[in-house]
Amino acid sequence: MHGSGTMMTKVLSARIFYPAVACLLTACLFAKPLPAASHSPFASQEADDTVAPAFPEIDSQRERPAATVDPFFNFVTESAWNPIGGRKEGTAYNQQVDFGANVDLDTLLGVPDTKFHLRLSDRVGQSLSLNAIGSDFSAQEIYGAGQTFRLSIMNVSHAFAGAPIVAKIGWSPLGSDFQTSDGCGFQINFFCGHANVLTKNSGAHNFPTGDWNV
Predict the structure, then answer these.
(1) For the chain, which residues make up each domain, given as ranges?
(2) How far apart are CA 38 and CA 71, in angstroms?
(3) With contact defined as beta carbons under 8 Å apart, do 78 and 140 qualify?
(4) Residue 200 and residue 212: Cα distance in Å, rounded?
(5) Which residues contact 123 (CB under 8 A, 6 or more apart)?
């Protein structure tokens, strides 16, 4: 029994070994050559000029599109002193904080020449004109319309191409669009503000107050 078992093992080994050797020889004879090195997945990237570098050079002079959202924040203080005249000698301090953003709807949504504007403001302080001088002209332009936090602007504007016309719809201080003095270096409204009759007789408002209008 032991001899026949050994003979059976040799027969099974021969049946497995010889076919395996035959398959290996056949594979070697009919195998296709490997592709060229430039097409090999293991080829160096330097051999192919079409491969982009891992860290492309940054062009600092390249023109970039304008920002879609332009946020802003402003803080202004105004102090005034009345040494003589008026009702009495006195001082006053006030401040204004306003913030918001201007959104370019052209780059954001593809609406040409159209922008969305949002602006909130907060005013705190006293008026020298009311407390010490007794004048209708505010010595501190950021005083007035209630010293409080409020929504000042929330509208959409559209500039018509080829014409100096801008249309607005939404919450706006309409009076601020007429007879304003850009770049005025004085804080008193006597020099920098427009005539109050422009807004009082029309029902419009000046910044920071507004209303719904077109």
Answers:
(1) 2-47, 69-213
(2) 52
(3) yes
(4) 16
(5) 94, 95, 96, 142, 143, 144, 145, 146, 147, 148, 208
Question: Rounded to whole angstroms, how far apart are CA atoms 113 and 65?
Answer: 15
pLDDT of residue 15: 45
pTM, two decimal places: 0.64
pLDDT (tens digit per residue) in 67-111? 689 999 999 999 999 999 999 999 999 999 999 999 999 998 889
How far, in Å, CA of 132 to CA of 200, rounded? 25
Q: Does residue 147 contact residue 123 with C-beta atoms inside 8 Å?
A: yes
- Residue 75's alpha-carbon distances to 80, 94, 140, in angstroms, are 17, 11, 14
Nearest by Cα to 116 from 172, 51, 75: 172
Q: How far apart are CA 88 and CA 85, in angstroms?
A: 6
Strand order in the sheet with 149-159: 69-82, 90-104, 114-125, 149-159, 166-172, 211-213
At residue 66, the pLDDT reads 63
Backbone dihedral angles phi then psi of residue 13, each to the nearest 5 degrees: -65, -40
Higher model confidence: residue 177 or residue 199?
A: 177
- Tell me if 120 sits within 8 A of 150, measured CB to CB: yes
